[in-house]
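Recall the central idea of this unit: under ordinary conditions, the amino acid sequence of a chain determines the structure it adopts. In this exercise we apply that idea directly, starting from the sequence alone.
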Amino acid sequence: MSPKYGNTLRCAVILLVLIGSGPVVAQVSDDFSAPAFNDTLWQTVDPVGDSSFSQSGGRLIISVPAGTNHDLWTTGNNSARIVQSTADGDFEIEAKFESAPGAAFQIQGVIAEQDTQNYIRLDYYHDGTSLRIYATGFTNDLPTNYANFSVPTADFLYLRLGRTGSQWQAQYSLDGSIWIAISTFTHTLSVTNTGVYAGNVGTPAPAFAAVVDYFFNTASPIDPEDGGVVDVTPPVISNVIATPAVTTAQITFSTDEPAHGQVSYGLTNALELGTVLGSGLQFNHTVDLLGLTP
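Accordingly, the structure predicted from this sequence is:
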């Protein structure tokens, strides 16, 4: 064997070892359109032990029940979340939500974490009056607030979180096209995971289901998302209950996927008295009919 050939062989072996031992380079985009949840890519994290995770119709659903807090605060990160291994480098992630917090204090957002005490949260939450954007970095459970302001509600809510070294850029969008800067800030973090989460807090805490359409690494998004398939199958309606009062009535019902609810009503089959719309995409719907004649 010539010296040249032997040197070449040794270099090749060293190169293979380096490639095999490296970390995940960047986040893997997921539009949740596969028949089953990708548990080789994602890890589910349920610190309280009572949350649920499901995937159907090109959506991921993270549900937290009423009565227990799933907060991200000074006592640690107790949100229900999915995370994937992420190298400690520069990146930009984007998530689209088909749900909107509508009661205090329901939460949904994206996260970049070093561990349960050191992370950055970027989310939408409801304060009981309005929908708000919140950006916070935690160092050993101590928060530094970078943004907290109200925004209009919308059927779809988008978040982007980008990192360049210790500089972070947070943005939101209500249509996926026009992006609005939330904050640019400096925060030191050794990133190990990124993902999406759902949370709640209160006395009692309200139930909430975060509906995630996709989680993207913006450098390699899935296009077309969900394979370009348009959902034309109507939701299945169940558990319809009408609760009348003297001049009002409350109509509640459920759907098997997030949907817009509406109730049309009248004294005849023509439903001539009008139509009342529900509030955004929901699984559980409540519509109030007002000004009725006894």
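Helices lie at 3-21.
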